[in-house]
Task: inverse folding
């Protein structure tokens, strides 16, 4: 499939080089959720150099919003996350993380470099469009807290509500491709819960005098996993994972409490509500069964709404991307139980929606993809220590996908003598 030439949206060599260097710098120096100070400063400085006005430190976090006012027209917001994960990198790459125990294992460095690349492209071609470009660098996505903090802090009250929000996410699909939702949800909604099971501590030699919270927790973990298997319809796509379990300090001491944290995911809010209540019921029942001295505590620590891209916008951008990348590089994305907190800025509390376009960005090198398919293996995916995006393919694709999407939404600029004619997609 021959891509349609689109000089306004395809980054020239010098811009790709700058984006690659930015990616390498971000990848070498990952910062964990809420502590992305150097990452935010680096990106904000680059955006300032491109001529954008940057509002830093939003909601008392490293999040920033960069703004390029370019005459009357729509407001388009491009969002990138900033945070890395507490994962020890095992890619063996020459530009691997230099920070022990931290890695850009979700590809947020790729998103940031692509967003900056798109901002550079749009700034360089500003004669060809009108409107307002916003680039949001969002802190703390992995903890599902950063977007909520911005929403609670009144981001749109302060800077206006955008006409569309654009975002993409690295995914284990062939590098050089993008994949759009085919209607309906693209990512699950989620709840993160912390639980404390109370027991009565004592000597290991006299368990009959104690109420063992460790046994309660062990039993609860097994029982909790039956909720998705036996209390949720398969079509709800529910997933439950107990991610932490802590109890006790010595082999000869029965502890007085056990703590666990778990995540719930599903594709409808009612399914999440029901599972949340079922978790409470199981923990209460296990405590009662063990004659616990007091009931357990269950706390909701984070949540994210179901991510459903705007159907009309998605259909339009699928066509735009096919025009700029070639139809063979635009795939259909299956719904994923992954979650995304950007929905706090698009599915608003008053029940209205800011149109969201969200697509997956393929990162797997072609050779890896072929070998895995031949041998029936899976390819390294996000959050894995060996997740290694194919930079040379994925980054230019990500820049073009964002730029073309923004240009489709922004108004066409006035024709000027000798200028490249406005792209046909650029009309509002
Ligand atoms: Zn992630
Ligand atoms: Zn992510």
Result:
């Amino acid at each position: 499939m021959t891509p349609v030439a689109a000089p306004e949206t395809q980054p020239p060599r010098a811009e790709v080089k700058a984006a690659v260097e930015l990616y390498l710098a971000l990848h070498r120096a990952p910062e964990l959720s809420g502590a992305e100070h150097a990452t935010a400063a680096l990106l904000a400085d680059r955006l300032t150099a491109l001529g954008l006005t940057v509002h830093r430190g939003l909601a008392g976090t490293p999040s920033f919003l960069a703004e390029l006012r370019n005459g009357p027209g729509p407001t388009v917001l491009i969002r990138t996350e900033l945070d890395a994960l507490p994962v020890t990198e095992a890619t063996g790459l020459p530009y691997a993380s230099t920070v022990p125990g931290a890695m850009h294992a979700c590809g947020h460095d790729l998103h940031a470099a692509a967003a900056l690349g798109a901002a550079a492209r749009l700034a360089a071609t500003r004669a060809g469009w009108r409107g307002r470009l916003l680039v949001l660098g969002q802190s703390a996505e992995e903890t599902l807290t950063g977007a909520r903090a911005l929403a609670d802090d009144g981001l749109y009250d302060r800077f206006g509500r955008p006409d569309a929000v654009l975002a993409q996410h690295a995914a284990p699909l062939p590098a050089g491709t993008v994949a759009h939702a085919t209607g309906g949800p693209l990512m699950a909604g989620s709840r993160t819960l912390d639980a404390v099971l109370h027991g009565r501590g004592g000597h290991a030699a006299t368990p009959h005098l104690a109420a063992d919270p460790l046994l309660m927790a062990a039993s609860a973990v097994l029982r909790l996993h039956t909720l998705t298997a036996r209390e949720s319809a398969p079509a709800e796509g529910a997933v439950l994972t107990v991610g932490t379990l802590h109890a006790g300090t010595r082999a000869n001491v029965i502890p007085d409490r056990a703590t666990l944290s778990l995540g719930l995911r599903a594709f409808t809010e009612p399914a999440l509500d029901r599972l949340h209540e079922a978790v409470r019921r199981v923990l209460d029942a296990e405590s009662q069964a063990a004659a616990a001295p007091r009931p357990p505590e269950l706390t909701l620590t984070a949540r994210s709404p179901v991510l459903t891209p705007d159907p009309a916008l998605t259909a339009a951008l699928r066509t735009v991307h096919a025009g700029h990348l070639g139809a063979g590089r635009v795939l259909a994305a299956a719904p994923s139980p992954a979650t995304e907190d950007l929905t706090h800025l698009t599915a608003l509390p008053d029940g209205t929606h800011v149109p969201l376009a969200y697509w997956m960005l393929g990162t797997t090198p072609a050779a890896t993809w072929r070998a895995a398919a031949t041998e029936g293996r899976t390819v390294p995916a996000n959050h894995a220590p060996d997740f290694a995006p194919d930079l040379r393919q994925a980054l230019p694709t990500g820049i073009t996908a964002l730029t073309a999407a923004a240009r489709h939404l922004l108004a066409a600029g006035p024709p000027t003598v000798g200028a490249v004619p406005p792209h046909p997609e650029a009309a509002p």
